[in-house]
Amino acid sequence: MFHPASQTVVLCCMVVASMAFGSDLKITERSAIRGGPTRISTTYISGRRTRIENRSVSGFQAWNGGPTVFSYGHRTATIYQCDARRLILLDLDAHEYASVEIDGQGRPASPRPIGTPMPLQPSGATLTINIEDIDTGERKVMFGYSARHIVRTERRVPGPGAISLAQETKRDSWYVDLNMPDGCPPRLSNKRAEAFVLVSGGIDGRMDKIEAHHTGVTEVGYPLEVTDPPFSKKEVTELSAAPLDSALFELPAGFKQVPNLTAQPSQPPTSQVLRIWAWMWQSIWGKFGGDR
């Protein structure tokens, strides 16, 4: 985990599975960060098409200085049609959609300018990241697959003058060999614990040079459960290779086209009584591990 006040971090630290052609696939994942909401996302993959369903969420204080209450927005779906060079964004509650042209890799064909990013200047110092993946030898059956127990230790060692902080974290995970469909956008074609593309910048717009080193097992598989104690946990709650309805990857009938979706989380209640009620409801609902 990263110190929130000391740096801005953009991290791609992905563990990916073997991506060979296979049957259709449905994966539902539940993730939670300590003190935050539970998020549920479902991914459907079939051939050159992928559908991802989730919903937005925001937080507000139940009362001044009180606990945070989370407000969920509309259910949304993103459909990648790489064969048709089309990306469809759906608001499943408002029955609206927006469409974007993409290339065969699932990227926008004509990306819109989103502003000029703040340039990051080299700090002149180096941050060394040492990542070690150890197979504990433990095995258990998950969704009919034999899962391997892998523990990752990540040590960050800032050199003289570095703006990054020294840290050591552990990640406890279970992985399986999963023969996934090709999907869209395409995924990496190996099972390696891909270490990193990391940019760490300070508040003054500087960044350290990154030197990353990986040791231990180099093939891990697809993560079914990932725990970053004590902060967060992500787990697969459903994994199915049953054939999928092709209609999942098409524009549903009756949806109205709009320039942009506005499926934002609902506004917090203005009445303190309603805010307290929302907090009580969240506290009760949270015991069952679901989002609304």
Kindly provide the radius of gyration, computed on alpha-carbon positions and rounded to a whole number of angstroms.
21 Å
Which segments are poorly predicted (pLDDT under 50) over 5 or more consecutive residues? 1-22, 188-200, 287-292
Shape: globular
Structural class: mainly beta
Strand content: over 45%
Q: Give a quick account of the main beta sheet: strands, pairing sense, barrel closure.
A: 13 strands, mixed
H/E element sequence: EEEEEEEEEEEEEEEH
Question: Total number of helical segments?
Answer: 1
Distance between the termini: 28 Å
The total beta strand count reads: 15
Average pLDDT taken over every residue: 78
In helices, the fraction of residues equals under 10%
Strand order of the largest sheet: 12-8-9-10-13-14-2-3-4-5-6-7-15
Give the key terms.
single chain, 292 residues, mainly beta, 13-stranded mixed beta sheet, two-stranded antiparallel sheet, 1 helix, 15 strands
Give an overview of the whole structure.
With 292 residues, the protein is mainly beta. It is built from 1 helix and 15 strands. The protein has one helix at 272-286, and strands at residues 8-12, 25-33, 38-46, 49-61, 68-81, 86-91, 96-101, 121-142, 145-158, 167-176, 197-201, 206-216, 222-228, 232-240, 256-257. It has a 13-stranded mixed β-sheet, covered by helices on one side. A two-stranded antiparallel sheet has the order 1-11. Strand 3 and strand 4 form a beta hairpin. It is globular and about 60 Å long. The two termini are 28 Å apart. Mean pLDDT is 78; it is low at 1-22, 188-200 and 287-292.
